[in-house]
Amino acid sequence: MELILFGLLAVMLVFMFVNTRKRQKQLKAEQEEKAAKTLPGVKVLLQGGLYGTIVAYDAEDLDKPALVEIAPGVVIEVHSQAILRIVEPTDTDTAVAADADAVEADTPAEPAAPRLETSEETRARLERDGDN
After folding, report:
1. Residue closest to 66 by CA, chosen among 114, 28, 101, 52
2. Residues of the chain by 3-state class (helix, strand, coil), percent to 5
């Protein structure tokens, strides 16, 4: 009985070792693919949820920080492994941009600013609404 349990334990250990090695190879391949695609000018998603454009990235030395532009003129340094994934442009992105341009053309240049109530007007409105 003990021999069967030791055999079962050995099979489980071998299975765990093989699965771990397989997963490590898969992660290494994904990391190499990401490093090859990460070039200046590519749009990326950072782990914090920020989108940005790569300004500088060293695929050979991953300890060097990558420079990412998150807004025009705003460049931040991030750890190269903080780049979660490359954002692939899709057809819907161009369609959304075209729709946004069409909406901007239809809207007036400056919308009217909302009027703020004074404290006296607010008090009068609340008293008036309280009577109803």
Report:
1. 52
2. 50, 20, 30
